[in-house]
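Reminder to self: tokens first, then the designed residues, so the page reads top to bottom the way the pipeline ran.
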């Protein structure tokens, strides 16, 4: 990777700075606008990273972010052991680069919110199913 490096111009640094400012906002609108209006030809990896960040915001459909959705949906389809759910998650996406400890933290938050029960197998509750069907909002 080091031999393929490129020197950043002042314009590249200014673009990255605008991206950071959009990234650091509490709501996604500025970041969405930034991604739609900027030219990323000199920094082609930046949009993918920022789009991954956008998926960490709650969905307007059910209040789950993409990581929560990716954990809850397979658990609803099958009664999975924790390791099976982790493997399913990692097969579906590598976008977030999260490990087992972070997955466990997400699952514990979903359990505390009453969406799942963490036992030998992970069980989705009635509330969890309602949220997956967008009949309730996780953020409420």
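Designed residues (140 positions):
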């Amino acid at each position: 990777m080091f031999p393929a490096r490129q020197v950043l111009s002042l314009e590249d640094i200014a673009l990255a700075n605008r991206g950071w400012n959009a990234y650091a906002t509490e709501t996604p609108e500025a970041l969405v606008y930034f991604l739609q209006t900027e030219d990323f030809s000199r920094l082609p990896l930046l949009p993918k990273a920022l789009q991954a960040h956008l998926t960490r915001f709650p969905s307007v459909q059910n209040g789950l972010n993409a990581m929560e959705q990716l954990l809850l949906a397979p658990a609803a389809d099958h009664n999975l052991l924790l390791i099976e759910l982790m493997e399913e998650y990692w097969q579906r996406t590598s976008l977030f680069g999260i490990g087992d400890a972070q997955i466990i933290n997400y699952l514990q938050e979903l359990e505390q919110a009453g969406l799942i029960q963490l036992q030998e197998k992970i069980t989705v509750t009635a509330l969890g199913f309602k949220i997956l069907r967008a009949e309730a909002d996780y953020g409420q």
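The two ends are 45 Å apart (CA to CA).
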